[in-house]
Design goal:
By secondary structure, this protein is α/β, with parallel strands linked by helices. The chain has one domain: 3-Layer(aba) Sandwich (Rossmann fold). The protein is built from nine helices and twelve strands. Strands 4, 5, 6, 7, 8, 9, 10, 11 and 12 form a nine-stranded mixed beta sheet that branches. The chain has a three-stranded antiparallel beta sheet with strand order 2-1-3, with helices on one face. Strand 5, helix 6 and strand 6 form a beta-alpha-beta unit. The structure holds S-adenosylmethionine (SAM). S-adenosylmethionine binds next to helix 5 and helix 7. The site of S-adenosylmethionine has 20 residues, from helix 5 and helix 7. One of its GO terms (biological process) is RNA methylation. InterPro entries: MeTrfase_RsmB-F_NOP2_cat, MeTrfase_RsmB-F_NOP2_dom, RCMT, SAM-dependent_MTases_sf. Belongs to the class I-like SAM-binding methyltransferase superfamily. RsmB/NOP family.
């Protein structure tokens, strides 16, 4: 792309008051440049690659690698030592750094290929991770990644979010990494026809509202819901959050201290954006909500999951109990303190 479309110009003016920032944003999309490769260590870290200095908020289990490193080709990749993901995904998943309760069950509503699930599993060490992927043909790669990285105990489902209402409000964390118009793919050199068109954006925003509504039903009392996208449009990000808080007043947005410098200027609620001109990643939006309702946490009944239709299961399901036994607060779990 050599010239920005009128729709892209319009979006840049809505996103940034400052003309220099508008130009930098447009330039990042029409002249994409590579971002550092990034890996998430699922097992103990090894010195295999040349790495870039970590950012202050970068989790200890994430490395940004120098240009030229090809982690996907190393034999330890096949052995599941690490998972390759975009740094934008790390940014989005950092909303989990503000999760303060012990987490028994994590439910990832839009899980394939698995990056946020694996991040959450590593960061929060739940007793059960349930990964759902609505699109059948994407389930294979999700299972293959979970298997390769030995993420356990895990259950994989493949249902539309509307079919999960038999499951009680039993997850302390629900992740909604929503399908979106995918505008940030342009910053990675991809082609996404129509991604700035209002029809595309509205269609996605409506789907996001439907998915987040169905997901809210699964959140346990005092539990969390994180919402994220890899797109820039305000309708799919801040406006979905504002709509959600209006519809579900029992939820409140939680501040994420690690991301405070990335606060979105398009909402007064704490929500965070990474833009491609930062050179860190193609772009992401993230927010963390907490359910303020009190009450008993219902058991996530594995038999209900079986009725829904388990596609894959790894690990000892006997480990799954109703009671939270972890006393410790997960303070500073994510951010390394050794540099
Ligand atoms: C942004 S991607 C998720 C990426 C994943 N969380 C990760 O970190 O690897 C969004 C996912 O939502 C799925 N999806 C598409 N339509 C959906 C729907 N109606 N309900 C739920 N998920 C849907 C897509 O197939 C895609 O896998």
């Amino acid at each position: 792309m050599d010239k920005p479309s009128n729709l892209l110009l319009k979006l840049s003016r809505r996103l940034f008051d400052d003309t220099t920032e508008q130009e930098k944003f447009i330039d990042a999309l029409i002249h994409p440049e590579p971002f550092y490769p990034c890996i998430l260590w699922c097992r103990e870290k090894r010195s295999l690659f040349k790495i870039e200095p970590p950012l202050s908020w970068q989790p200890y289990f994430v490395d940004r690698l120098s240009f030229g490193e090809k982690p996907g080709q190393h034999p330890l990749h096949n052995e599941g030592y690490y998972y390759c993901l975009d740094f934008s995904s790390v940014f989005a998943a950092m909303s989990l750094s503000a999760v303060r309760s012990p987490i028994h069950t994590i439910f990832d509503m839009c899980a394939a290929p698995g990056g946020k699930s694996i991040f959450a599993w590593k960061a929060l060490q739940p007793q059960l991770l349930v990964c759902n992927e609505a699109i059948g043909k994407r389930v294979g790669m999700l299972i293959s990644n979970l298997k390769r990285c030995r993420i356990s105990p895990t259950i994989v489902l493949s249902k539309d979010s509307s079919e999960l209402n038999q499951i009680s409000s039993s997850s302390q964390l629900v992740i909604v990494d929503a399908p979106c118009s995918g505008q940030s793919l342009l910053a990675k050199g991809g082609k996404v026809p129509g991604c700035f068109h209002p029809t595309t954006i509205n269609k996605n925003a409506n789907r996001q509202k439907r998915i987040i509504t169905n997901s809210a039903q699964l959140v346990a009392p005092k539990g969390y819901l994180t919402y994220m996208t890899c797109t820039y449009s305000i309708e799919e990000n801040e406006q979905v959050c504002e709509w959600f808080l209006n519809k579900f007043p029992q939820f409140q947005a939680v501040e994420v201290p690690e991301l405070v410098e990335y606060q979105s200027h398009h909402s007064s609620i704490p929500c965070y954006r990474l833009f491609p001109q930062s050179k860190l990643g193609a772009g992401a939006f993230t927010v963390l909500f907490q359910n303020t309702e009190m009450g008993e946490i219902e058991n996530l009944d594995v038999e209900v999951l079986q009725r829904v239709g388990i596609r894959y299961q790894l690990g000892d399901m006997n480990l799954i109990t109703t009671k939270d036994t972890k006393e410790e607060v997960l303070e500073s779990l994510l951010v390394r303190d050794d540099f």
